[in-house]
Amino acid sequence: MKWITRENPKIDRIACPWLIRRFIDADAEIIYVPFDEVMVKAKELDAVPFDLPNVEYTHYDDQCTFDYFIKKYQLKDVALERVADIVRGADTDRHDFAPQAAGLEAIFSGLAYNIKNDQELLELGMTIYDGLYSWAKHLYRLKHMQGSPVEQMLLEVYHKYIKQGKSKKAPEWATELKEMIQDQLDTNMSLSLQQASDELEINPAYLSREFSKYFENLSFGEYIRKLRIEKAMHLMGSADYSLTEIAYLTGFSDQSHFTRIFKKQTGQTPTLYKKNVLKSKKDTNS
Fold first, then answer.
1. Domains of the chain, each with CATH number or no CATH
2. Which pick of 19, 41, 74, 112 has the fewest CB atoms within 10 Å?
């Protein structure tokens, strides 16, 4: 059977031919032609077009053509599903779908830059996807160096020195982010992860993953809530603010939400905490 698509393949237009030859038709002929010739050549050569608009084998919603082939041919294979996540992430620039997606995109971007012959690139791509599939089927649980005779020694070094050491210098973005958050302390703490990633020009998925390493082992949301509660506790030392006003000044949507988070963080309701703080201050001044 013949399959035809646009020239200059990179991700999906190499992944799909691999899928076709390995799981659908081992003798399939893959044809690459300029975009504006695909439909004419498809009719002329009796080939099935794929990975272009207004054909059956194409993208649907946030899924790519590779996903459609799996669905169309009912390929029930957990390893293929893992590969599909990686291909989809690389092909749609959604690296949050799978951590390996960025690497796959980088590899094929480089190969496409170096290799201008589409069939030559496809043959090399077949080998790469064979390797990716083997990883997804047999090795996906293993980490780099796992199973090596020196693995245990490396883990011991990690736990003894690196994990316990707190002297690792924070990256520049972490320092800048701390300053951004500090600036928010005088407002209603409305900074979001997306706003922070936009300001720092850092991928939000990366920022979310790395954040806890430099901010007290807390996620972005947990750290912001902690600062909000600390600010609220400071404001409660003054009789000038009501709890409703304090909730607003610390960025909570309403007082009930503020009360729930405050109690979760401190073990006390805001009312009881403020009462004890003011009483303590009064006793100290008397």
1. 2-139 (no CATH), 172-285 (1.10.10.60)
2. 74
